[in-house]
């Protein structure tokens, strides 16, 4: 059986992905190639040292979704803001979402989802575990109409790894299971996160050869 995109990305030397962050856009499609990378933070946003914030600053063609209310999120507002970004973005769209941002991505209406060429969905949230996120439940369990990779962690405090795997199966995503990676955020030591960048690169590489 041929290795999956996720497996290939995981096998890349970490220093290669690290260099890509040091040299903005290295190994990734440039803005001139008309690919928009949309960064979709989760509940309470992503802080300055978070991999999402670093990518938003350094990757060409990157756009960051900004929500009016990061503390008490509603599905209508969050999905609406994301849909507008997707529909307004030039060229093909690749999503890099974290936590509740993954669930907002899964809720996108068909018109916006049709603009997406690939999505990296990291540490998806479980809206049923926190009352403040209940507006995002139930989570859609239909196949996503684009290539996607779900990354889950064995000890994520916000989403059991079994549920992350169930999301991946239902969405038709490749699944990358990390051991002891927490919520894959700054608190768990994931700042620049070279593996994540390599996974993102594996998605954009498909567009280069399409």
Fill in the keyword field for this structure.
6-stranded parallel sheet; 8 helices; 6 strands; 210 residues; alpha/beta; single chain; 36% helix
Description:
The protein has 210 residues and is α/β, with parallel strands linked by helices. The chain is 36% helix and 17% strand. It is built from eight helices and six strands; from the N terminus they run ααβαβαβααββαβα. It has helices at residues 5-10, 14-22, 51-58, 75-88, 100-106, 110-113, 161-171, 194-209; strands spanning 35-40, 62-64, 92-98, 116-122, 147-153, 174-178. A six-stranded parallel sheet has the order 2-1-3-4-5-6, sandwiched between helices. Strand 1, helix 3 and strand 2 (62-64) form a beta-alpha-beta unit. It is globular. Residues 12-27 have low confidence and may be disordered.
């Amino acid at each position: 059986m041929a290795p999956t995109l996720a497996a290939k990305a995981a096998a890349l030397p970490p220093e290669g992905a690290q260099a890509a962050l040091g040299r903005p856009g290295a190994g990734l499609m440039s803005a001139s190639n008309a690919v928009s990378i949309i960064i979709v933070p989760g509940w309470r946003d992503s802080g300055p040292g978070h991999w999402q914030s670093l990518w938003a600053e350094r990757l060409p063609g990157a756009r960051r979704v900004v929500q009016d209310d990061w503390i008490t999120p509603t599905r209508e507002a969050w999905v609406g803001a994301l849909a507008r970004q997707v529909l307004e973005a030039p060229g093909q769209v690749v999503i890099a979402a974290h936590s509740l941002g993954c669930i907002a991505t899964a809720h996108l209406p068909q018109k916006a989802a049709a603009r997406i060429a690939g999505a990296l969905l990291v540490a998806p949230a479980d809206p049923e575990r926190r009352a403040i996120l209940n507006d995002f439940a139930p989570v859609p369990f239909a196949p996503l109409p684009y290539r996607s990779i779900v990354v889950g962690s064995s000890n994520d405090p916000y989403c059991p790894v079994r549920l992350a795997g169930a999301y991946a199966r239902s969405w038709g995503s490749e699944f990358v299971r990390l051991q002891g990676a927490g919520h894959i955020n700054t608190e768990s030591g994931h700042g620049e996160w070279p593996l994540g960048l390599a996974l993102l690169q594996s998605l954009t590489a498909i567009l280069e050869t399409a």
